[in-house]
Amino acid sequence: MATQLSVDQVLRLTERELIQFVKQNITNEGGTWNISNIVDWEDVSQAKSELLSEKLLGSPVRHTTTQSPSPSRSPTVEPTENATQDYQTKCYQALLDDGCRPLFPISLLPQVSANADAYYDLLRPWTRYPDMLSPEDWEVFSRQLRRWKEFRTWQLGNRRQTVGFSEYLDEQRREFERMGAAEFAAQPIFEQTVRQQWEGEYGHGQQQPGGDDAEAVLSRYAEAARRLLIDCGFVQPFQLHPDPKQQDQWTTYVEYLAFECFWLGRLARSAQKLRLQHDAEWEGLVKADVVKPLGACDDLRSTEVEDMRGRELERAARAARSFTAVTGTTATDTAATDMVKETRTQPTRKPRARRGQQPPSHTQKSLQSSQSPIDDIARRNDLVNEYVHDTQKYQTAKAEVDYQQRRVEWVQSEIGKIMAEQRAAGKSGSTIGAKSRKRKPIHDADLKPPVGKHKRTDETKETVVDGRSDYSRTTRSKKRKLATDEETQGPQLKTEEKVAGEIDGPGTKAGKDRRVSTKLDRWKNQGKSLHNTSLCSSLVLQEIRRCRAKKSGRVPRRKAEG
């Protein structure tokens, strides 16, 4: 007969013990699982149920059920010594194939598995419970993959879309192959079982892609996702795609953040409800004079309090036995002892009165009055037991909220990383930002006169009249030839020239400064000494006035040079 264990006991099993337990509870005929040997699996929370599922599915029992090695193995693939690492590696690859970002690179897996405590901060977003250390905390890729599949199902459900049975069947086969249960996936019963599971998930009349109101459904879903994200502090705009597989990674992770925020709100509301119930039960204990008002509620869970409850129960039982010794009733000692045992094991049960039973005599009434302290203590223990049980539920709910909050923060950090990676790669998007196309300033010395069909060399020659050159005419001629040559270029070059012109064109301050600088250099070459600061400033002002006057149509009066 197989051993019956609780969920907590199964979670604490070592790898060797887990293998033995799984082998005892899987039949050889059809590979079915006998869940009845896990006694309290129906009463545990959803999070602990997920832990149990991960524990059982991740069991390396596949490597111990057969004594003979695999008949064929590819010579290019070396078998992994650690079966669990092998499974985690396959889950890692499955995450990449489905567009999910694993928690850490696969090259770090041997170090993390060898010393998970040293990587506590790295594993923190995907650890099971903050106050429940487990040697399997490093097995994050399988948990990530299972959570990502839940998100993918959530994506389709909110779009009123379904997964075809063939696609669903292939995915289930791949999952069993990753776990090393390819033999079971090849059995005829496998497809029948998967079809029943598929009908249970997608057989609720969900809308097929391309329905009449698909756009309205997506719009309502996007608005609900925005509200969820705002509650978590995310306010960036995004646009969901009707087909989740066509979305970019940034938008998919924003939608994934909405999924995790949804569960954070749900867990927080559940924890708040348990907290109110927890406080009400404590007030009930205080009003019943069971306990004194204490600041720390965890005192009732201590060993000293449990021992105190047992001592008080034994003291009440001894008082009942003393009364029976005085009255001469010998059976009361056994009755009192049985009462103590019953209140310890099942304090909520009370004996029912049988039909036709005679009313109690005076002696029996006295005996019952002597046993009333036991009843009072039993009732008190009922209240305390209920409080302690609900306290454990409340503590677990708080831990789940904290666990989910860390996961939400991790997804937010991944969104920031994706944005930085896309910007670095030069990808553009309305929500990510466009790549800058700013060009470096172009100087006249760097521009070579283009060789065109209608090159007018006479206008590019300098004409010195009264010690000054016709620089303005030369510059305008070059600009016209640049414009003529620009017409022969492609649209990309025209756009770049337009951007460059907006930055440092002839009408801008940078263009004017270049002309002044070139003019000063020309004067310097003609023998004008510019070492005198006042003379340099005067020449600059003269050139600026001349340019402004020419633009306005007035010719300023020139001072004699020298």
UniProtKB/TrEMBL annotation:
Residues covered by region (Disordered): 59-83, 326-375, 421-535
Here the segments flagged for biased composition (Basic and acidic residues) are 456-473, 510-524
Q: Which residue ranges have biased composition labelled Low complexity? A: 64-76, 326-337
Could you tell me where the Polar residues compositional bias lies?
Answer: 358-373, 526-535
What is the name of this protein? Ankyrin 2,3/unc44
